[in-house]
Write a structure and sequence with these properties.
- It is a single chain.
- The protein has 823 residues and is an alpha+beta fold.
- It has 34 helices and 24 strands.
- Helices cover 43% and strands 16% of the residues.
- The strands form four sheets. An eleven-stranded mixed sheet has the order 11-10-23-20-19-12-18-17-13-16-14, sandwiched between helices.
- Helix 29 links the parallel strand 17 and strand 18.
- The termini are far apart.
- The C terminus is likely disordered.
Amino acid sequence: MSPRQERIVDAVVRFLEDPWRVLGGLFGWLPDAVRLLIGAAAAALVVIIVAAAWRAWRDRRIIRDARRIRILPPGETDPSGAGTLWMGLHALLRPWWRRALWGQPYLAWEITARPEQVEVSMWVPRSVPPGLVERAVEVAWPGARTAADPDDPLVEIARAKGVPIETSDLVLAEPEWFPVGGVAEDNPLSLAHAALGALRDQEAAAIQVLARPVTARARLGLRRAARALRAGGRPSRLAWRQGRDAASHRPAPDPSLEADVRAILVKAASPLWRCLLRVVARSPERPQARGRIHALAGAFALFEGRNGFRRRRVRGGLRAIGERRLRRPYLLSVPELAQIATLPGSASIPGLERAAATTVPAPRELPRDGKVLGIADHHAGIERAAAISVEDARHHIHVIGETGTGKSTLLAQLVLQDAALGRSAVVIDPKGDLVNALLERLPPGSEERTCVIDPEDRDSAVGLDVLAGDDPDLVVDHVLGVFKRIYEPWWGPRTDDVMRAACLTLTRTKGATLAEIPLLLTDPGWRMEIRDRLATDATGLATFWRWYERIPEAQRAQHIAPLLNKLRAFLLRGPVRAIVGQSSSRLDIPALLDTGGLLLVRIPKGTLGEETSRLLGAFVIARVWQACMRRASVPEEDRPDTALYVDEMHNYLVLPRSFEDLLAEARGYRLALVLAHQHMGQLNKEMREALAANARTKLVFTCSPEDAFFLQRHFAPELNEHDLSRLATYQAACRPCIGAGQGAPFTLRTTALPAGSPERARAVRDVSAAAYGRDRDSVEEEIWNRQRQAKTNLLPEEPKPKPPGGSEGGSAGASPGGSRGAP
C-alpha cells in the first residue's frame, strides 16, 4: 500500500471514529467567507423548513372543523346577487399580522350533483364567525335560505371505490392581470348546470370554486402592469418595479395595447380574490367519466375573451378536492368571481331544491313572550320567539291555510299556553283531533277547571240549556239567529214566526228545554195549558197560540213541517239530545270563564253530521257570548281575559248580529277571538271585510294562488303572492298587531307539540265528567219522564209504558206516545 493510500485509509478511519471532530477540523481550515456562507445557507435552510412546517400547520388548522352551509335558492334569482355576496365577503380579509401568524381563511363555493339531486353549498372554515356567511347569502339573494348540513357530498364522491373519477383544475390561459371574458347573459353557467343534470346511478359531478380575499397590494400590482403594458414593456418584468426605476426603463407607448390596458385597469378597480376552479366527474365507466369532465370543462368556454380557462391536471385530485386545498391560485376580480360562483338561474334544474318562500325576520319591537306563535325565521338561523301580547290578542287573530299546513298545531300551542297561565279559553273543534291533542297535553293542575263537551262520550253528557239566560228575548234572538243562518235558504218568515213563539213560550215554562219544541207544536193538550198560563202575558204569546189553534190541521202541518224536520234531525240524535235536553245543567259557563276555566267542545262533523255539528257549536258560542255580555256591569280593568278558538269559523259564528260589530264589541268584553279556516271562498263578503278590518293579527299558512293574490295586500312589500302560496309546512306569514297598531310582516315556524299521553286524556275526561256531566241513561229517563208527566197531567190516565233503559231509546223530541228513534 502506498503512503498516499495509507493516508486516505487513516483519514477514513478517523472520520468513522469521530466524524464531528473531522468535520470541525475541515470547517476550521476553510476561509472565513466560506464558513460564513455555509452558516447562512444552513440557517436559511432551517428557516425554510420551519416556515414550511408552519404553513402546513396553518393550512390544517384552517381546514379542520370547517362547516358546510347548504343554500336553497329563491324562486327567482337576481343575477346581481353574486356580486353583492363576494363584495361583502371580501371583509373576511384579516390584518397583516394575523395573516402572518395564522393565515388567511378562504371559502369554497360548490355545486354538487347526484342522480335527481343538485345541491349548492359553501364550505366555511371554523375561524369565520357563525352567521356571517349565512347573512351575506340571504341579503344577496332575498328569499334564499341557508342551513348547516353535516353531510359532505364531495367526501362521499371522493371515497367511492371501484368507480372511475376524473378531476381537473381550470386555470387561466393568459397572465392573471388580463380579465376573463365577460358573459352578457343572466345565467352564464347555464351550460355547466345543464352538464350536471341527467345523471345516472353511481354517477356524480361537482364544480368547486376556492376563493381567498387578497389585499389592495395586488390591485396596485395590476395598475403597474397596466402602466408597463401601455409603455410597451413586458408586465411580467416591470409590474413590480417601484417608481423611478420602472420609469427609467419605459419604452415608447404602444397605442395598439390600449384595450388591454383599459381591461387591466377595470379589473384592478374591484376587490380581488385568489381563486381556483375545479371540476370533478364520476361514472361507472372511464369513457363516460371523461365525457362528463369534458362537458363540464367545456362549459366554461363561454368565458373565453382576452383571457380564458384551460385545464390542468390535479395531483392527488381526489384528496385535493375533498380537503379543499388551495394550490397555485390566480387573481380574479369580484365581477369575474361572481360569474363562476353564483346561484343557478330561474330556469328549472332537475333535482335542485329551492327555497319555498321568502323568509322575513321579525320586527325588533315584536314581543318574545305573551302568546307565543312560534319561532321567527331569522337570517343566519338564529332562533327568536315570536309572540303577541295578551292585550294585542284582544284585537283578534285570523288564521288561514290549507289542510295539513299547521293550523291545528298553532291553535293547540296557544290553548296550552292559556291553560298553563290560568287564562280561560273555549275551543270549538269540528274535527275532534284538536281537543284530543289538548287533553293529552294539558298541564298539571288544569283538570279541575276543564270541561269537555263531547257528543261521542257514551257514558256521560254535559248539559247545555240553550234557552236559559237572564234575558229571554236575547236568548231567543240567539237561538233563532243560529237556525236562520244555518238554514237560511229554507228559512222563511212563517217558520221564523213559529220558532220564535215556541222558544219564547218555553223560556217562560219551568223545566222546558229545546227538546220540548216538537211536543209544544204537536200536542194540543199541553198547548192549551200553556196558553192558559200565558193569558195575561203582555208579549202577545197567548194571542199567537189562539191563532195557531184556529188554523186547520192540514194547514198547521204545512206551517210546522219545515221546522220539525230540522229540529228532529237535530234532536233525534241521542248524544245531542242528552246535551240540550237537560233542564238543569251542572255547567255554569260564566263562572267557568271568570275563573280561568277551559271549555273544550268536540263536535266532529264526520259522526254528527255537518248541520248538527254547526248547530251545537253555534249554540255553545251563543252561550259564551251571553256570558261575556254579562261583564258589561264589571269595570273593564276587572274583566278576565278569555280566548275563543274556532276552527272552520264560517260554520259556527252565526250570531244574529253584524259580524263586524261582534268583533268590535268582543274586545271590550276582553274576549279574544282566534278564527281559523281553510280558504277565502268559505267566507261571505261581510266576513271577509270584517276580518280584514278588525282581525289585526293575520297568520297565513300556505294557501292557494287565488287566496294569496287576495291576501298579499296585507303583507306587501315584504311578501307577495308567490311567497304566500309556497310557504313550507308548519311555516306561516304573520302580520302582527303590536301596541294596537300594525307591525311589519314576518315569517315564522310553529313549534311541534310535546309528546301526548292517552292516560292523561282519560284522566281529564273522568274529572270533567264527575264535575260537569251526568249519566246519559239518567238524562234520557229525565227527558222521558218530563215529557210524559206533561201529558199525564193534562189528559186522561192511560197505561204508562216502561221507560227506555238507556240512550238508545226513541226520540225525546217526538210527541208522547209516539215511537222513539235510536240516536
